[in-house]
Amino acid sequence: MAETGWSCDANDAIHITMVQPGDTKPKTLSTFHPQFTYPIFGDDEQIFGYKGLVIRLRFAAHDLRPHLHISYDEKFKPVGDTTPLDLLGTLKPFVSEEALINLPDYEKAVQEDASAKDFTPPGKMVYSYEANERQYEIWAGSLADPQVRLLLDRVQVLVSLFIEAGTPLETDDPEWSLERWTVFFVYEKVTPPTPTASSYSIVGYATTYRYWYYQRDRSHTPTIKNDDFPPAEIKISELPARLRIAQFLILPSHARSGHGTHLYTTIHAFCIADPTIGELTVEDPNEQFDALRDSADFCLLRPEFLKHNVNLNSDPNGAYSRKQRPRAVPTGVLIPSKTLLEIRTAFKIESTQFAHILEMFLLSQIPKSHRLAGGTNLARLLIKKHKADDENDRRYYWWRMLTKQRLYKKHKELLDELELLDRVEKLDDTVRNVEEGYEITLDALEGRLPESEGENAAPTGSRRQKRKLAVEDDDDEEENGTELAKRPKV
Ligand SMILES: CC(=O)SCCNC(=O)CCNC(=O)[C@H](O)C(C)(C)COP(=O)(O)OP(=O)(O)OC[C@H]1O[C@@H](n2cnc3c(N)ncnc32)[C@H](O)[C@@H]1OP(=O)(O)O
């Protein structure tokens, strides 16, 4: 434990333990430390006043019954204003009330839980899968369901401990508001450790909510109607909506085994199956989540792009373009915009995310030796431009133009404040960084795709790193009012 004198690292002091009944008393399934404790203990994540401090947060693996247990070897004797931290007072707002019973009572409750044998996760099962010869199920339920609320209230402290800038949900909102929320739980189906124990063990969960999706029907001229007032009851669950993933968590003991990807694709399938949902969006995704989402969306859309022969036209304006540079990027002839819109609408993918996946796909269709990652001669291409002899060089030229065009439109206000030369340089840096980010994802996907071209050799060790982007996405900041969890995403 990183301890200096009377202060210790809060991340080390907290132990999160999943338990299930054992032969005579509950046994530990897994134990892990939090990633963050600053929402509870402050920015420096230090706890003053204890030696040998262990704050153990236990959860029953099936119904997440919680328990908080604090132990230490020595406690600092107050000197004037210098007092040890009030641990219970500090932790109370973050853990549910029922976690504060004594340990023997908790252990008895877990060990002798008569209902455990018949426990099923709340809501209904929406997907099941096998991984590494183990069985998993994903269940979805409305937050208006008291059982969903109970589980969420019990586990929400993990949001503060694992999701940067994440805040636990208010679960005592009015019912109509709770109905907007669907919570997805991932459980492993296990062989019960005792005859009366549960066969479910938590893996992770995600919260999602519907929010109004304004779509103007331009085929109708707005008219004043004499409808009854007040109107008949409106059910929020039936209004056109976007579904937004708010919190997404896979327990560290189950991380990097594909469960996050299963959970995300299940939520996506849930959106596609619901005619009232127009798009899937994500609130404040972090870098890891973006990587997971990009990979999953790429695997989903790639077969569709291939089916429709989506590719960059290397001669967008025919022979004419070879002599004279078009005044604007000829998007309509470069890519099949109508088909792409149909794909995007059918797959309910938000427009910026769709643009990323499309750009990544178009890039992947250019042989690596004609891309920056494969050592193409960019200086020569920038002289030859759309007149380059090789069609893949021309494709790469147009790929850069198309991506720059999107980036420019998205960040127009910011870029227009710069001098022309600075603007060109900034845009150039950004497209390069975006391209590097795509190459990393394509590398990571190598071998996972059914018809892998073998273009992107898998790297040794993770190359996943923060995408260095020259132009930051100010939209996210505006929408979410926080910069902490946000990764610059262009
Ligand atoms: C909206 C938000 O809430 S944003 C916040 C997201 N949540 C958090 O950051 C909380 C803490 N972290 C987590 O909960 C998890 O680590 C998550 C959600 C980020 C990722 O979940 P995981 O289950 O680990 O994801 P998954 O296993 O599907 O993929 C992650 C990696 O594992 C790799 N992977 C996928 N399947 C396997 C497998 N069978 N074996 C080994 N590795 C695999 C993937 O390649 C991926 O690697 P990469 O990111 O380097 O490309």
UniProtKB/TrEMBL annotation:
Binding site for acetyl-CoA: 248-250, 286
Region feature Interaction with histone H4 N-terminus, mapped onto this chain: 43-45, 209-211
Catalytic site: 283
Primary localization class, coarse: cytoplasm
Keyword line: Acyltransferase, Chromatin regulator, Cytoplasm, DNA damage, DNA repair, Nucleus, Transferase
Pfam family, one: Hat1_N
Site, Interaction with histone H4 N-terminus: residue positions: 176
Superkingdom to which the source organism belongs: Eukaryota
Class of enzymatic activity (EC top level): transferase
Cellular localisation: Cytoplasm; Nucleus
Region (Disordered) location: 445-490
All residue ranges annotated as the Histone acetyl transferase HAT1 N-terminal domain in the record: 6-164
GO MF annotation list: histone acetyltransferase activity
GO biological process terms on file: DNA repair; subtelomeric heterochromatin formation
Record-listed E.C. numbers: 2.3.1.48
Bias (Acidic residues): 472-481
Catalyzed reactions per annotation: L-lysyl-[protein] + acetyl-CoA = N(6)-acetyl-L-lysyl-[protein] + CoA + H(+)
General function of this protein: Catalytic component of the histone acetylase B (HAT-B) complex. Acetylates 'Lys-12' of histone H4 which is required for telomeric silencing. Has intrinsic substrate specificity that modifies lysine in recognition sequence GXGKXG. Involved in DNA double-strand break repair. Catalytic component of the histone acetylase B (HAT-B) complex. Has intrinsic substrate specificity that modifies lysine in recognition sequence GXGKXG. Involved in DNA double-strand break repair.
PANTHER family per the UniProt record, alphabetical: HISTONE ACETYLTRANSFERASE TYPE B CATALYTIC SUBUNIT (PTHR12046)
UniProt record similarity statement: Belongs to the HAT1 family.
Known partners and oligomeric status: Component of the HAT-B complex composed of at least HAT1 and HAT2. The HAT-B complex binds to histone H4 tail.
Name assigned to this protein: Histone acetyltransferase type B catalytic subunit
